[in-house]
Amino acid sequence: MDNYQKRGYLNSDFRLFHLTDTKKQDFEYHYHDFDKIIIFIRGSVTYRIEGCTYQLKPYDILLVGHNDIHKPDIDSSVPYERIIVYLSPGFLLAYRSDSYDLSTCFQKSKELHSHVLRIHSMEKSDLYRTLANLEYACTHEGYARDLYCQVVFLEFMIQLNRASLDNRVQYLPPVTGDRRILIIMDYINSHLTEEITVDTIAEACYISRYHLMHLFKGETGYTLFDYITEKRLAMARDLLKSGTPVTEACFRSGFKNYSTFFRAYKKHFHVSPSEAVKDRGNV
């Protein structure tokens, strides 16, 4: 099985980095248990997220949800500069009310199968003025620094969601070699907790079994079964974090056999499900 690792860590509500790489870097497919916002500044980068491919332009904003499998393909002949914000999904939920939801831009991203927002020039001033303030707040010491970072970050998220809702940013249509990939992924994610076989997917998506497997591997870089397993493991991890008992998390995430779940979870996360529960309790 290909190993799509969970990378990165988050020990606070959000973290911000301004990075420039000039050396060759090869990234494997991976995912995080936090949401990620990337503001692309310069370089030559093709980003692959959940079967969708995007050729980035300066000031594109990428929305990578937690558990989204992704990787960048980077041309190392030119510097790759970007600003990255890692944020806890629970942080955004804490600010949801009947009249607003700061995760709306992520929800719209999933609905449209588009992970990249392209900003019109008239909108850039508002968003990037706030972004510049956020970067300064997070990288300079001062009175109530953590609180100030949080306040400015909330302003950035408000500006981003306003631009999204008012259609002042463009959600880029994904570029894929075959649009059926998105239909296949939709089917898998909608039936993740059910019995899924190659035949059931092939029948639902009107494609032959043989062509389905080769198409999925060729377009996404990973096998059909690896993708399903990764998604189920990510769901199980989220359930465990929410306090769901281990056995219940196993079956609610689509695994039919506990021993299979146990081995897969420990191999991928390097801890057993029960150890993950203990670690949660020690946080």
UniProtKB/TrEMBL annotation:
The record's listing under SUPFAM superfamilies reads: Homeodomain-like, Regulatory protein AraC
Q: Which PROSITE patterns match?
A: HTH_ARAC_FAMILY_2
UniProt entry keywords in alphabetical sequence: DNA-binding, Transcription, Transcription regulation
Domain HTH araC/xylS-type: start-end pairs: 182-279
Q: Name one Pfam family in it.
A: HTH_18
Tell me where the transmembrane regions lie. Answer: none
**The organism's place on the tree of life at top rank:** Bacteria
Q: Which SMART domains match?
A: HTH_ARAC
- Residue spans making up a coiled coil are none
Task: Please list the GO terms describing molecular function.
Answer: DNA-binding transcription factor activity; sequence-specific DNA binding
- Please name the InterPro entries in this protein's record: AraC-bd, Homeodomain-like_sf, HTH-like, HTH_AraC, RmlC-like_jellyroll
Per its record, how is this protein called by name?
Transcriptional regulator, AraC family
According to its UniProt entry, this protein's organism is Lacrimispora saccharolytica (strain ATCC 35040 / DSM 2544 / NRCC 2533 / WM1)
Q: What is the lineage of its organism?
A: Bacteria, Bacillati, Bacillota, Clostridia, Lachnospirales
